[in-house]
Amino acid sequence: MSLSRFQLELLAPARDATIGREAILHGADAVYIGGPAFGARTKADNTIEDIAALCAFAHRYHARIFTTVNTILHESELRLAERLIRDLYEAGVDALIVQDMGILQLDLPPIAMHASTQCDIRTLEKAEFLSHAGFSQLVLARELTLTQIAKIRAAIRDDVALEFFVHGALCVAFSGNCYISEAHTGRSANRGSCSQECRLPYTLVDNNGAVVAFDQHLLSMKDNDQSANLERLIEAGIRSFKIEGRYKHMSYVKNVTAHYRRLIDQILDQRPELASVGDARLASVSHGRCSYTFTPDPSRTFNRSSTDYFVNGRQGDIGAFDTPVHAGLAVARVTRLIREGGNSLIEVETLGETDDASEMNALAEKEIVLSTAAKHPDDRHEVRGSKQIEPNASKEVNAQFANGDGLTYFHGRELQGMQVNVATQMGSHGNRWRLEPNAKLAELPGLKVGTLLHRNRDHVWEQTLAKPSSERRISVRMRFSDTPDGYVLVIEDEAGHMARVAVAHPKEAAKDLAKAETTLRENLAKLGNTIYSVDAASIELDVASVPFVPASVINSLRRDAVAALDLARDRAFVRWQRAAATEPLVPYPSETLSFLANVYNSAARTFYEKHGVKMIDAAYESHQEAGDVPLMITKHCLRFAFNLCPKQAKGVQGVQGQIRAEPMTLISSGEKLTLKFDCKPCEMHVVGKMRPQILKSPPPSIASLPAAGAPIKFFAKRT
């Protein structure tokens, strides 16, 4: 059981239960959070007790809590995972997000299962299979287009919901198919310990040894932002909109959740016909509306600039090549540098409406030149392509500075940073400031008059979000009526849940009818310490004549009615159950599985064998792949990024036929990776091998190995 086709879900991340509560208060319909173990973020674990408390809080709004158990499991961890899942079920968790198919073979409570993004669901055949395997929600691959999503929606079971990432960091590889971290550091991305090799600087060399790009973050992606595509995603069949960020801070979760809550509410208010049959209309799966003390703005919190990736087809610039960190909004230009006594001061002028993106951006355009024979970037002469590099074209007009702000600027390709110790406004116009940084000018390389400054930490903004910044209230209607021996109060919430409470009390006519009515309405509306709100138009007085009723009586009646409504809502909350697998079992789309299937235990083997798979390779983490293999498969293509793609050259006079998809090489700290290009599906394979010391080490596990102390051998076999 999961979302219906008429329900929309905003799914927010939580590093811990405190952030999870704030995500709910800022508009999340559901929160995903790691448990004590086996979540794909090793530094975002939480106790069962904290998760239980979060579940109780979320369920008051009929919001849901999903727990990540989405690592692949070593053989010795299966029973630990089984016990953990039982504890999570008892704690009230609504669904598990899983990658390892072995979990479906364990003796588990009837908890709902969601297929993680780590399952690499990017084909219609894979999605259709998983929709029959016992999953009630599928997290689709980030690389899919709207057309592909719509085709998957049409093919899978009607009672299975589709989930899609709409915001946050992008993994350059297909999720679940990235092994660079394991190969180079022994830290498995499939087990939550990714070392983020994709964010390192690389040099790109073509097949003839020419340098195409030198010391850039060539595998680093901009951040995902689907703000402009929500309606089209709904039309394509997405029902759960997921925000990335279980490592992110509180301010990020508050801000981004509020941003998407507003966008989704706007769609619900203005476009209910997007999915309707008869009287059924789109609605949020949880209840309540939010009010904020701030204006949500995702550009103010951590981002690497933004892209909508492949949703609308391949884009020309999806990479964050210059820096993998948050440069921030462009805010000012340096007008003067001052050395005054022992102090260093920077005078700046804030950006105005006339500053356009091309002028703001110090690195807006770079020409990439290369030679077929060059071995070093200083020895390049032949122009082969050009690349637009745009670290952050967003700006803040007439910015106000504060002590504690963080500022950045680019010096060549390097992002430099400083903190503002003291900010002083100059003059009466408000656009000139004197800033005292936390470093001497000599310690700020490349800073000069004309340098564009970005702000990656807005102290005032952060302080605002550090305080209570949202209220979430469920709207109710009230009807106050006469009874033969007293009065009755009926309270009904926005979802139709109702409570009725009566009180016996002598009737007493009011001397001042207008004052009595005002007082009665005010006392009925005192819902300040509850999760409910009521406006004056939603209070009905069904009485022949407004009586005088002591405030103590009304307050008691109201409190009892609210308690009764809480109970009614609690009883109406339906716990999702695990979906049954289709019988007879649906065959897996292939009879063979390579290491890319991430089969790391006997339970997963059994699952695939039951579904007709006849040959199964061990997971890469089993340390049985000694040679060169695809350590990463990605839709991000460096040939395309640098205008060296054969498809780009097709039909171009003088170029067609001269560019071929020959292999290229990535180099970082002496480590070489081969790039192979599969042009038919438009994919790039990053090929390499596991380092010898890692290959010889035991396969990763948080549990003890078998009594013999040796790692479990896991060979492919035919059955």
CATH architecture label of the domain at 7-170 and 222-286 and 294-300: Alpha-Beta Barrel
Please give the radius of gyration in angstroms: 29 Å
Mean pLDDT comes to 90
Find the CATH superfamily of the domain at 7-170 and 222-286 and 294-300: Aldolase class I
Topology (elements, then pairings):
Elements: E1 7-14, H1 17-25, E2 30-34, H2 48-59, E3 64-69, H3 78-91, E4 95-98, E5 112-115, H4 124-131, E6 137-139, H5 146-155, E7 161-168, H6 180-185, E8 202-205, E9 211-216, E10 223-225, H7 230-236, E11 238-243, H8 250-270, E12 283-284, E13 289-292, E14 306-307, E15 329-340, E16 343-350, H9 357-360, E17 365-366, E18 387-388, E19 406-411, E20 414-426, E21 432-437, E22 452-457, H10 459-466, E23 470-483, E24 486-493, E25 498-504, H11 513-524, E26 532-533, E27 539-542, H12 551-572, E28 592-593, H13 602-610, E29 615-616, E30 629-634, H14 638-641, H15 646-649, E31 664-668, E32 671-678, E33 683-688, H16 692-695
Parallel strand pairs: 1-2, 1-11, 1-12, 2-3, 3-4, 4-5, 5-6, 6-7, 7-11, 10-14, 23-26, 23-27, 28-29
Antiparallel strand pairs: 7-10, 8-9, 8-31, 13-23, 15-16, 15-22, 16-21, 17-18, 19-20, 19-22, 20-21, 23-24, 24-25, 30-33, 31-32, 32-33
Helix pairs in contact: 1-2, 2-3, 4-5, 5-7, 11-12
